[in-house]
Amino acid sequence: MVKLNTDTNAININQQNQLQSALKPPIKQSNNTMTEKSTNENDTEFNNQQTNDYEDDDIRIINEHVHDYYYAVRILPGQNPRSVFIGWITSRFKSVNRHYDTTVNKLTKLIRHCTITQTEDDGSIVESITRQDAYMFCAADLLDNIIDKEKVTRHVVNGLLIGCLCDVSTGQFTFYVNGKESTQKFQVEPNTKLYPAVFVEPTVKEVLQFELGRIKNCLPLTAALFPSLIREERFIPQLPSRLHLQSLVHCHWSRVPNTNIRCQQLKLSDIRGWSVFVEDPVQMQAVYIPEEDQCTDILSLVESEDILNFCSNTLRLYNALCAQGNNRVSHEICKFVDEKQLMYCVKNAYLCGPIRIGVYDLLIALHFETHIKARSLTSTEFIIPLSDALQKSVLLHPKISIEQQQILSTSTYIPAMEQFLAVRPKLIKDEEYVNDN
After folding, report:
1. How far is residue 401's CA from residue 152's CA, in Å, rounded to a whole number?
2. Torsion over CA: 30, 31, 37, 43 (sign)
3. What's the CA gap between 220 and 68, in Å, rounded?
4. Which one of 74, 80, 300, 417 has the minimum C-beta count within 10 Å?
5. How confident is the model at residue 35, as a pLDDT?
6. Total-model pTM
7. What pLDDT shows up at residue 419?
8. What is the per-residue pLDDT for 39?
9. 297-301: Cβ within 8 A, 24+ apart
10. What H or E segment, with its residue span, contains residue 136?
């Protein structure tokens, strides 16, 4: 890996003059301008302009090797930084909890995250990856973790400037507060699609503003959003008209069947019209809400938490009523939850967890628990019919001689298959009944 030195002071003046002449004509000094202005002002302006030109030339040369992209958000005066979260989100982001309180200063209820750990047989960790759909920090936390907090807070008259820098070569996120680097950072795995985002709860009328500028040795965010720009235009901050700011709003999703219905149309005649029939109808199961006089698909209960909890608690109530072999109540419950409903829930692979658990427990309580309990209690019980041959056997007589006991203990006897007696009562056929009469 080659480490590039992007410091402008490390490049000598001869190289700068050559690069400057190669990219654009050098800046000419005007004697008239020097005579009109004072010498000190002219020298200062010329040096600043020359330094900026050298920085632009350096960026133009190394822009193909720069992998850092930067954007900033300025929190205007009066806005509470505790209710502002700045960072990046992925394309899979979805709000978990609709009722979110930013005063808690936590994003655990808003962001989904998981940790995947690969271990060996002895328990040692081989690899651990943390995945989440948003990488954001609170603006107040970033300000508190600055080393020179007192110096930074003095210059907050125009607002608090939070800069977000993304290094796509290493996958590291860095945050800046009024130009000072913060100690809080993020590490992201490769091939992650990111979007700049801000979560804010407004406390004033003018909340914040986005600044798509750049800092030294970094490219602006527009260079990543518009890769079709030419090399010399990548480092120039710009705001095209096609760049829009999207706001995340809550929406309601309606489910559709996983498989489409295959219909066939047939025109019988001009008088009788058309005939439409379905080969394989698609089944669905709904929950009726009497208060609202509407039905909701059972697969859509995951979107409404209250109805989901009510249905799962109802199934638990049915399960409790069927306990201890209450067959009378079980037959009454079968009128509400019949065989078709149970089989639909058992075979459906997209049913949510609480409903699936309640249906399986109810199925066991209705149809399996009493039989399983009866079989388990009588698993060691046997019925031995007392036939004539068995009554005459010496095994049932405790008073036997010692010689017979020794013979029985040393010999192995397997009874013949012909000597048995059926416990099942004999069925009388119609022909036998007629003959007997």
Report:
1. 109
2. positive
3. 8
4. 417
5. 36
6. 0.47
7. 55
8. 36
9. 297/255, 298/345, 298/351, 298/355, 299/255, 299/348, 299/350, 299/351, 299/352, 300/253, 300/254, 300/255, 301/352, 301/355
10. strand 134-138
Instruction: Give the chain's domain count.
Output: 3
Residue 87, in any domain of the structure: yes
Single-letter amino acid, residue 377: L
Of 331, 356, 377, at which residue does a domain stop? 377
Mean pLDDT by 10 residues, the chain (437 residues): 30 33 37 38 39 50 70 88 87 66 54 83 83 85 77 69 87 86 83 85 87 78 72 70 70 72 85 86 86 86 88 92 84 88 90 91 88 83 69 60 66 55 64 63
CA distances in angstroms from 168 to 69, 218, 256, 262, listed in the order given: 8, 12, 39, 48
> Token pair for residue 331?
């037959």
Residue 277 parent element (H or E): strand 273-278
Q: Which of 214, 212, 199 is nearest to 244 (CA)?
A: 212
Q: Comparing C-alpha atoms, which of 415, 320, 404, 305 is closest to residue 364? A: 320
Residues 166 and 198 reside in one and the same domain: yes
- Please check whether residue 332 lies inside any domain of the structure: yes
pLDDT of residue 310: 92
Structure-block tokens of residue 216: 């030294």
Task: State the amino acid at position 234 in one-letter form.
Answer: R
Range of the domain at 45: 8-62
